[in-house]
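Milestone M4 deliverable, item 7.
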Amino acid sequence: MKTVLITGCSSGYGLESARHFHAQGWSVIATMRNPRKGVLPETERIRILPLDVTNPESIAAAIEAAGPIDVLVNNAGIGVVGAFEVTPISHVRKVFETNTFGVMAMTQAVIPQMRARRSGVIVNVTSSVTLASMPLAAAYTASKQAVAGFTGSLAHELGAFGVRVKLVEPGYAPTTRFTANTDIPVTDLIPEAYADFARPIFADFANPALTTNESDVAEAVWLAANDTSNRLHYPAGPDAVGLAQVA
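Output delivered:
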């Protein structure tokens, strides 16, 4: 029985991915900053572990408790929407700590065991902002673009040891908690000077032509984890697939 460790499982993509892998018969290690019961089935094939991907001690404890891992899914992330001009650099750093350095730290923590076994898969969940430039998301885009470049390079580096590295690129999902893990409300990051520019953008956010749901992403993560080819990119959701075709 294979084991997957997924970060950010309290809701959204991580939670749905944990459910999907469990339904396929895998052993699932679902991690979250504040573990809570009731979000996942209570079976012998599911373990919920505390994990803060920005904390080295928390990462070390989770990896030790998890034991051998066949697949790591780096899903934990936070969003930020607003004019970059007024986004505090301290908050930009916070976004990078989770979205970028958290991914790198978790990846670095599992590489030794996967390299030694000459097998394993690392799946990094980014965003369709890596496929097309979008306004009012400069800091978030930068954090995800960094992961995209990191993943592409690492795929070459670890491929020599039989370890596969993949990118899942979800589209826009209004139902996910995209900005829930942020200290700054969107309204605080849209100053009056940007109001006219932002208004039609937020109107489009409210009525998107195509959207991505949690199951789209879970299925893409599952495909990436089990695909033995050299494929790197896995857009998730109809809008992301469309962007990938023209990117």
